[in-house]
Write a structure and sequence with these properties.
The protein is built from 31 helices and no strands. By secondary structure, it is mostly helical. Among the domains are: 63 residues; 184 residues, Serine Threonine Protein Phosphatase 5, Tetratricopeptide repeat, CATH 1.25.40; 70 residues, Winged helix-like DNA-binding domain superfamily/Winged helix DNA-binding domain (Arc Repressor Mutant, subunit A). Helix 17 packs antiparallel against helix 18. It starts with 19 loop residues before the first helix and ends with a helix.
Length: 535
């Protein structure tokens, strides 16, 4: 008997609002496989948003693999719902189907299906470590949808958020930090309206990473707090978001010299890694960080070598491999093995987000080989890039240049470079390691620059400089000054919003305006300004 599925109207179209899984089951039971696939294509993103990833993945299990591979659209949906490392191998046929689709076949698809395919294509390329191909797909996708005026949730539905998240991650891991932040902001604006908590969480994690890599630890810490406020949920482990958030938090602790917090986090992650495989790479990296902080450089290097030689390092979150490569180079430099450090970083991907850090390692290695002039040469281009995308690890680049200039007898240039590193470190609260940046033989340089810095600080906060600070603060509106005073005190953005009876988004909007007008980049700098003004 041919039973009419309850999830269809009289024309056989999917009725939105019905239980999609029930509809698909009834269609399959009635032998209507093509209509069941249409139902999947029509509602998978709404179902994902409303029911979460675990239930959405069950939609794919209703079909045979052969049926799902019939079209690139359904193959893309399977990838987006199921591609959770380290279980990518069973999805191999779907990845192949996506990457081998002809452009003319994709071009004739409706805008939602085309967006789905483009999103999956970016993520497949990223899973294979091909950030260059993912970037090319991202740009083509933006050009295609932007030119047609289709880049909005009203035209492409909830897949809009998945699409923007994919492009934001491509930009983030490619080093375009500001662009990634803007895209994550668009996702947050959508998720706030749609009430999509998981989407909000993923965007906040992405933004936190971008600001941390940009040495803006105050903003990054606020975003981490906002993400944590959403609350722990197994669903958030999807797409490794919890690993990424922990990586970001421990990165901040490591560069701020908060070794107690770092050691405690390393123990927690190690315990979790014993039962959850996706945490194992981060556990090894944190173990190496702790060993480095204790001066056990060769032990750290061995752990990182083994990690990088394994097949486990995730392309889904390339910053894990980047971190391991940079730390390995650093460990070998500290262990006085410059040639080994050069060999290690030569194996790093060309698109690594830690490019500035690897340049610094190369420079320190060249210094160790008695080639300070070559060290200066390799850092020149990195500083040019840094003017466009200031990076956390530029502190190391400035430190390497300072050492190289000092060895060449260019003392003024050495002081300038060390001061530049100091300024970036102080603004972000980075703990500068003396054994890396100078060492006993260059203690005089360190002391010289520190003495000048102290004099500059005393002058800056003298009575005369207070009036300058007051003039800067006069640029702000009364509301911005109120927000600034609250930002200067401890607390999350949620605390600030609650105290001022405004929303978090309003706080963020005011903070962006304040930072722009005052030419500051962190809450630490904001606090310094308020204190200097005597408020």
């Amino acid at each position: 008997m041919n039973v009419k599925p309850s999830g269809l109207d009289v024309r056989g179209q999917v009725v939105m609002g019905m239980d999609l899984q029930c509809t698909i089951r009834e269609l399959i039971a009635a032998g209507e496989i093509p209509k069941a696939l249409v139902a999947l294509r029509s509602g998978w993103d709404h179902y994902l948003r409303d029911n979460g990833a675990a239930r959405a993945r069950e939609l794919c299990s209703e079909f045979d693999t052969f049926d799902l591979l019939r079209s690139v659209e359904t193959a893309s949906i399977v990838w987006l719902l199921n591609a959770v490392p380290p279980e990518l191998e069973p999805l191999g046929p779907f990845a192949t189907r996506i990457l081998t689709a002809r452009e003319e076949d994709i071009r004739v698809l409706g805008v939602r299906d085309r967006t789905t395919v483009m999103t999956a294509t970016m993520l497949v390329w990223m899973s294979r470590g091909r950030l260059d191909r993912a970037s090319l797909t991202a740009q083509r996708s933006l050009d295609d949808l932007g030119r047609a005026g289709h880049l909005s949730p009203t035209t492409i539905g909830p897949v809009y958020a998945e699409f923007l998240l994919a492009i934001a991650r491509v930009k983030l891991f490619g080093g375009a930090l500001r662009e990634s932040v803007e895209l994550f902001n668009e996702v947050l604006a959508y998720s706030e309206v749609a009430g999509a908590a998981v989407t909000t969480y993923r965007a906040l994690v992405g933004q936190a990473i971008a600001f941390a890599l940009n040495a803006e630890f105050g903003v990054a810490q606020d975003l981490i707090s906002s993400a944590k406020d959403i609350g722990p949920d197994a669903e958030y482990d999807w797409n490794r978001q919890a690993v990424e958030l922990t990586w970001c938090q421990t990165l901040i602790w490591a560069y701020q010299g908060q070794n107690i917090e770092l050691n405690a986090a390393a123990q927690r992650v190690s315990a979790r890694a014993s039962v959850e495989p996706e945490w194992r790479e981060l556990a090894r990296i944190l173990e190496a960080r702790v060993l480095l902080s204790e001066g056990r450089d060769l032990e750290a290097a061995n752990i990182l070598k083994n990690l990088l030689q394994s097949v486990a390092v995730s392309n889904e979150f390339p910053l894990l491999e980047d971190s391991a490569t940079f730390l390995l180079g650093l460990a070998l430099i500290k262990a006085d093995q410059p040639n080994a450090a050069l060999r290690a970083i030569d194996k790093a991907p060309a698109t690594t987000m830690h490019m500035s850090g690897l340049v610094a390692v190369r420079a320190f290695a060249l210094i160790g080989r008695g080639q300070p002039d070559a060290a200066i040469e390799v850092t020149d281009a990195c500083l040019e890039l840094g003017r466009e995308h200031p990076g956390l690890l530029l502190v190391y680049v400035h430190g390497a240049r300072a050492v190289a200039f000092e060895l060449l007898g260019l003392h003024s240039s050495a002081e300038y470079s060390m001061s530049a590193g100091f300024s970036l470190a102080v603004s972000a609260g980075i703990h500068m390691e003396r054994d890396i940046f100078a060492g006993p033989e260059l203690e005089y340089l360190w002391q010289r620059v520190e003495s000048k810095r102290r004099s500059e600080c005393e002058e800056r906060y003298s009575a005369g400089s207070r009036s300058d600070t007051g003039a800067r603060l006069a640029q702000l509106t009364p509301k911005e000054r109120e927000v600034l005073r609250r930002l200067a005190r401890p607390g999350t953005l949620a605390d600030v919003a609650a105290d001022l009876f405004i929303t978090e988004n309003t706080v963020k909007t005011h903070a962006k305006s304040i930072y722009r007008k005052l030419s500051i980049r962190s809450r630490a700098e904001a606090s310094d300004l308020v204190n200097a003004a005597g408020h």
